[in-house]
Every structure is written in C-alpha cells, then in structure tokens.
Amino acid sequence: MQEKDIQKKLVDYINEHRTFLDLIKNSDDIEIPEITDKNDFDLDKILKINNLKKYSDILEELIDLEIILADKNISFEKQEILRPDIVLFNPDGNYTFVVVEIKKDKQTEREALTELLAYQQEIKNACPFISDKDINFVLISKDWSPLLRHSVENINSWTTKSILPLMLNINDNDDIEFELLETNAWSNTNIGKLPRNALSCFTICLYEKNYGSSDKIDDSLKEKALFAVNMISEILDKNDYHGFVFLWDSPNDGRCMCKWQITVVIFSGIDLLNYLNFEKPVIDQIGIENFKLENGELSPGIFFAEEEYNKFFDNSPKSKLIEYFMENRFNYCNITPYNATELMGQPKDYLSNFFHPVIEGFMSWDEFRHYFTNLYDKTYYESKFLLFPLPEPYAYPAFCKCFGILGDFVRENYKYFLDAHAIKMSFITNPDIIINFIENITQPHINIHIDDNNYED
To answer: Which domains are seen in the chain, by residue range?
Structure first.
C-alpha cells in the first residue's frame, strides 16, 4: 500500500467520523506520572511527563475535525510547493490546527520533521501570532528509526512544539490502524540530586553610577533593579536556559561596595557531564565517611550509594561525546555558559541609566552559597573554626525569578510551595522558598577514585 492510499483511507475515515481517535488502539493507555512534592525534581521523570502531556493534549484535539486540505499546496508563493498530507481544523473545540504527515518507508522519514516545520511556517504566515500550542503535529510512520525517535522526543521534551508519534499498522485486509509510540529516546541519567557545582553563577554588581558623588544608591532604585531581574529572566528563558535570577540587598557594613547585586544561576550541562562519572568507579569509603562527618547523612542517589553506582554504571551509556569530556574533564570544570553573559547587553544598557553595572563573581553555586546566603552547615563550620562565630552573609536575598524547566516546575507544582509561614510575597518570587528548593534538589559532590582496571572496554 502506497502513502497516497493510506492518506485516502484516513481522509475518508475522518470525513465520515470527524475524528480518527478510534483508529489509535492504545490512546487510553497514557499514564502521566505525578510530582509528589516540591523536592521531586527528577529530570528523567520531568521529561517523560512533558512528552506524555503533549501526547494527551493532542489526543484531546482529535475530535470534531474538519479537513481543510489533503495533499494540496499551502504555500503563499506559486513557485513553491508545500504539500502536507492532511491539514485539519477543530472549529468546535479549541480552534486548533492538526497537521498530519504520513511516512511509510525509511527513505522519506528523514524529511518528516523538515516538512512539518515548513508547514507550520505557512500556517503562521496565514495566522500571525498564533501559538505553537494551537498547531499540533501527528507523525505517522511504519518504521521509527533512532533518528526519527530522537528528533520527536527532543521537540516534545525541550520545545513548545508538540508531535504525536504513531506507528502505522496495516492488516491483511488492508485496514489501517495506529499505535501510540513512546519514543524512549532519552537516556536516563538516574540522577537523584544534582551536584551543586553543576550550577554556574555570575553576578552583575550595581556600583554607584558616579563613584564618590553625592548620588548614593538606596532603596529608591530597587524597582529599577527588579525590572532588570525580570528582563534577564525573560531573555534567558527565551534562549532556552534553565535556572534562577536573584536580587541581593547588601547591608551597609563596608564588606560590599554595592548595595544591590543581581546573580544569575544557570544549570550548566557541560559541568553536569563532568560530575557524572560514566566509568564504573570504586568508591572511596573513607571519603564517604568523611563526607558524612562533615555534612551529615548522605542523600540517596548515584553520587553516594554504592548500590546505586553499580546499578547506574552497569547500564551507563558510552559514546564519543562522553569519552571526549571524560578525557578533558578538568579543562571544563566550573564554567559559566559564555553565551549567557553575552545576552546581558540589553539589561546592562538599561541598568547603566542608574548604576555602573559590572559582571563579575564567576563561580559555582557550591562556592556562591557561602558568600551570599547563610547556608553554612553550622555543626561542620564550628567543628573546623571553633574560635570564630558563624559569619553573617554578605548580602540578603530580596527577590527571585525562575526560568526554563526550573521555572516550569515551580509554577506547575505551586501547591507544594505554598507555606503560609514562609510567604512574604508571591511564592514564585520569594527568594527564601527558591533557595530552599535549590538546596533540596542539589547536594555536594563526592570525589571518588576511578580504578582504570575495574571495567572492560
């Protein structure tokens, strides 16, 4: 059966039933995992939820459909040919488009994603400002190669676009039916908690615009700094970074030269890769006991528990990409994503009207938290420095904005962050709540000994 024959059968079915949901035999089998509390930040689980939610959302749109066109050119330019297999519209529901593309063999599947994006562009040409959520894709294929699986899962996991992947089945009577496909292209990290050194920080210090003049920085300029925090958060979210932006208020005690500081905290994928040992380790038990002594009991996860190490590394992925960073591990430790600082041009231009903004303080969250937040382990600190009291922080958090997956997690699971005793402002911007959240989803990294003879090539 050719693609055009499959297309005709599907068009005829939709014309008769105004849906093809009945042809998807496992459409009722979606079970979306639940987040159980505010510390349940499991990246593997979150990405799975993202995919399954998009599957569920598209399935809900596959009713009361009208066919706009089938195998017709939708390009605005006569000399261009853009022919989607089927374009559907839901006029009685959420007024959404559904673009269906059918690929029967491996020769054409490489074109699938390129074609879908081109068709989306033409719909946006006709309907400017339409949201990605209002254009859904259904990709039907008989052969789902790793290339196609990874492409679809990347779009569903990390972008605002949505694709429903369906496996095509043709029985002996040439009847067609579909099976919802879980792409499973994400290789689980099995990360329990994230290492603090995988969060990179830099700070925009807001010095006096004219140092030594009578124009001192005071609380009247706080709203200008708050506006910049919101601007930075939106810029980084738009550019697909994940993390937090804090505004700090420094006491006038002579330790800080500026009253207001803005700190950007970004999850660094390269740093995270550095702290994930993709070689099976021999755990230094002395190191673990020292860690317990200094930091209290260990949290469960691959960084600490030997059985978890073994479980993970026996099934760990091996690739040239990972090999490269393993060989060059210490050349890429505690780095700040350079492109993120390059995006600070517009906020700095705005802040320059009121301050003298300077980007400095490049460090990891593990280092930063001791400078600006009162997050010392008191027992550990006093055991090491018995002659000195616990120091006061250099600055106090005044405001916070989350962006990327971290922001989505906080907003979507707001009920777990609502604490009547802790809230002084909106929980999303309450720095005390967000700092507590960061502390609960991260932990220090244990240096372990790698035995080169402990695993096979």
So the answer is: 3-180 (3.40.1350), 194-443 (no CATH)
